[in-house]
Structures are given as C-alpha cells and as structure tokens.
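Two proteins follow. First one:
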Amino acid sequence: MSTQTGANMPTHVSVIMDGNGRWAKERGKERVYGHAEGVESVRACVEAAVETGVKYLSLYAFSEENWNRPEEEVKALMELMVKAMAAEMDELDRNGVRFVVLGNRERLGDELNRIIDSCMERTSRNSTLTLVIFLSYSGKWDILQAARKLALQLWDDPDGKEKLMNMKAEDFDGFLATAGIPDPDLIIRTSGEIRLSNYLLWQGAYSEFLFTDTLWPDFRKDDFRAALESYAKRDRRYGKVK
C-alpha cells in the first residue's frame, strides 16, 4: 500500500491504545497478557512512523483514571513499562527516536521515574521521530495544571490582569504539558470505542479522528499506513471555507 507524502502527511499522529484487555479475554488470558502483546504494536507503529516520515507519534498509555483499576493490574502495568523501556531503548536510540513521557509523573514510582529520566536524556538529541508516551495523563488535569502555572506566573505581576486579558490561545499552549509539541493532526482510537476518554482535550480541537474496531494488540504497520491513507484524503478547513 502506498502512503501519501508532503502536504498530505500528518506531522503528528496520536493513538488511544485500547482493547488490550478484551484481546486477552478472547484468548482466555489475564488482562496483562494483552498489555504485553500491545508492546509489539507500539514497536510496529514506531517503525511505520519512521518509515513514512511522521515526525511525532504519541501514545495514550495510562490515564489518570486508570489508577482506579485493580491494584494488581496497575502494578503489572508499571512493571511492564519498566521492562519495555529497558528493552526498547537501544533500538529507539539507533533509529534516531527521541523519547518523551508526559503526564502527572508525581504519581509514578521512583524506579519508573528514574528510568524515564535516563531514557529521555539519552535520546534528547535525536530528531528522526519524537515518541511521546502519555503516562498518568488526562486532558482535564493538563488544562488545570496549565491554569495553575499561569496563575502563579501572574500572581504578583502588577500588569497581570492586562496580560491575562490580552492572552491568546497560542499563549496558553506554552503552559500545557505538551508545550513545544505540535497538536496532533490525526488521532486514532482502536477497539471500536468512539470517544476521547479525557485525552488531549485542548490539543485535539482540530484533529482529524479515525476510529477502528481493531483491538490494539492486532494494530500493526498495515493498519498505521491505512490510517495515513485515510488522513491524506481528508480536507482540513479549520473552520474556513475552501
């Protein structure tokens, strides 16, 4: 399958990775088995992004709401993330992939945060692809923490009220967790669910969406390329008339 390039190529593709648990259940396995198989889909999509020239690939790995899952599953997920980062980092670095984790990292364990910091530092100068993992993230949390940053910055500023009244949407972008990262052109959600689930509520304002019934562990390179093909056929008007 050919893939469009140039103006029709998304700069930033984001994926809500859903369906790991159902995939495992269909096979009579524990949910964590589906999460482990989902790592293979992450690897496939990273490779496809590099091959097609996508510059940013972001993945919704663990939401703030996911902390409400059974403790055993959360623990297994965190252990899987530690293992996956350690196993994949050499390959990511070799392929010029910059690794970034965004979210409420205060809720993550010390060991995981140490590994995240190490991986981010090691790959910080890579430029072929930026891989963003949203971990302990939610859109409402992001907007709230951005508003708090803004309030603290203007708190003792005598011109704070005037600056606030003259503030533009793009000025607020700099306070979000995603500051410096372009908004997603295309957001993909797997497993047949048709909702954002509190993900990139500000940044996804003008994103194109693609919903697929494919469960995340079954989503591989051909699916990623097909999503790019679908995106290439769309006419993005941003509220304007063409």
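Second one, unrelated to the first:
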Amino acid sequence: MNVIVTDEGFSPDDWTDGFVTLDDAANDVVALDVASDTDPDELIDRLGNAKMVRVDFPSSADGRGFTIARVLRLKGYTGRLRARGHVLADQYAMARRSGFDEVEIDHTLADRQPEDQWLARANWQDNNYQARLRG
C-alpha cells in the first residue's frame, strides 16, 4: 500500500472504491486514473460524477499533471484530485497550488524523502513568489 501525503503529513490510503482508466470509464464512474498525456479539456467532458481523479506522474520531470489539475479546477471540478507517482517533496507546494488535494507516493520515496520534508512545504499558500509579488 502506498503513502498519501497531505498538508497534515503521511497517512495510509483511505480510498476503497478503486479506479478505472479513462478508456474504461462509463457514466457511473466513481474514480478515474488518467495518464499524464491526457487532454484536460477532453477529460472534463468525460468526468461525469467522478468523486476522484488520480493523475499519473511517470517522472518527476513531467509536469503535465500540474496542467491537468489546474485546468480541471478552473473548469469547475470540485472532486478529490490526487497526484500519483514520481512527485518529489520539492514539488508538493506546486501540486497543491495547481489543484491537487493529495499526493500518492510509494514507500521507497517516502523512505528517501521522509514526512518532515513534505511538511516543510505544507504552508504552500504562504510561500510562493506570486504571493510575495502581490504583497
């Protein structure tokens, strides 16, 4: 089981309803797994009543998932958004600012980047250059 990272730190995964891919999604889908190359405009039209969208990050250098989250939020998606995969502690604030509610990482990454490194970025609303420029 993977580790879920939120502003409160590490926790076990509490999602029990499973996930389906966008290709397998039907009208009654509860949770979607989407690839980083998914077109967010197409995705928003196919969400239906999905309560959770989990976006894959195949590499820490692949930032397309941040765009997916931002577009979904700007277009009105209010469900739970989760980043999954190779998201680093240094990217946590960006994940939160782009619209993700949480990050799912494996135990290997959690061991390499312990909870305190993620919590150091949990004040994501206060520490960004845009807020400093407006202030």
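SUMMARY FIELD: The longest strand covers residues 52-57. Residues 3-134 form a domain with the TIM Barrel fold (CATH 3.20.20.70).
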